[in-house]
Write a structure and sequence with these properties.
By secondary structure, the chain is an alpha/beta fold. It contains four helices and four strands. It starts with a helix and ends in a 6-residue tail after the last strand.
Length: 120
């Protein structure tokens, strides 16, 4: 290999490293944000709630089963952030409106909504 090819390869690797670093650090900051996750008591929703808590976000999770909500809260609280669980059947508009009111009463806002219930 010639010196020019090696320099070009090195420059390309350096640019790729810079782009990867920028992407990692330019994520949406969750610290102090309120994230509402439907279906957040298990599966993918719970994984997303864990990640949110780990990044300092406040989590509100909605699910139908109160036992699963309790297990999820027990799992999430030690990970950081504040956690609110709300029992709600999203097919019932009245329950859904009440759930949103509870979340806003507790946190004052909702910054991000992740509609996960019934996805998987």
């Amino acid at each position: 290999m010639t010196l020019g090819v090696l320099l070009l390869a090195g420059a390309l690797l350096f640019v790729a490293w810079l782009i990867a670093r920028f992407i990692r650090t330019a994520r949406y900051p969750l610290y102090g944000k309120v994230i509402l996750i439907t279906g957040g008591s298990r599966g993918l929703g719970l994984v997303l709630a864990r990640q949110t808590c780990a990044r300092g976000g406040n989590v509100a999770i909605i699910a139908r089963d109160p036992d699963e909500l309790l297990r999820a809260k027990t799992d999430l609280v030690p990970r950081g952030g504040k956690v609110l669980t709300v029992e709600c059947d999203l097919l019932d508009a009245g329950q859904t409106q009440l759930a949103v009111r509870k979340i806003i009463d507790r946190f004052g806002k909702i910054d991000v909504l992740i509609n996960n219930a019934g996805i998987i």
